[in-house]
Design goal:
Layout lengths: L4 H4 L16 H15 L1 E2 L1 H8 L25 H15 L4 E3 L4 E3 L5 H11 L18 H7 L2
Antiparallel strand pairs: 1-3, 2-3
Length: about 150
């Protein structure tokens, strides 16, 4: 490996930097699911930071991908594909955008999807999805206070 190769792909590590495939939605979904299961929300910059070390040089070039009319965009191919995947999750109802926090969050209506993903990965579900009102006549909080 030549010293100048590190300048071509500064985020790549290892001898196989030329063999990295282009990012696809299938590459991004596991990272998105892992972050949402861990925190219950995700920001676009978190996905970019998590995926950058695993991207090819072509995925990280700004304006390297033109639209159909020939105008170059001000974002990388990685950002374009991340936006596509986030849009897919919003369209299916698995995420919604919270404008106050500027993050995509898992809504309570998508509990079935997130429980399924957590079960497949032997992971835990975000706690905010599991907040179920206590409808019993003797809530656990009052029983704990009266116990000796």
């Amino acid at each position: 490996m030549d010293l100048h190769d590190s300048e071509l792909a500064p985020s790549a590590v290892g001898a196989l930097i030329d063999d990295l495939p282009l990012v696809s939605p299938a590459t991004i979904r596991p990272y998105l699911i892992a972050i949402v299961l861990h925190r219950g929300a995700v920001a676009e910059h978190e996905l970019v930071a998590a995926l950058t070390p695993h991207c090819s040089m072509c995925d990280l070039k700004v304006g390297g991908w033109s639209t159909q009319d020939g105008a170059y965009l001000d974002e990388t191919r990685l950002e374009l594909v991340i936006g596509e995947v986030l849009g897919e999750f919003v369209q299916n109802g698995w995420l919604r955008y919270n404008e106050e926090q500027e993050r995509w969050v898992a809504p309570p209506t998508a509990i079935r999807f997130w429980v399924t993903k957590a079960t497949e990965l032997n992971a835990s579900v975000p706690m905010h999805l599991l907040k179920i009102p206590d409808l019993s006549p003797f809530p656990l909080s009052t029983l704990a206070q009266t116990a000796p």
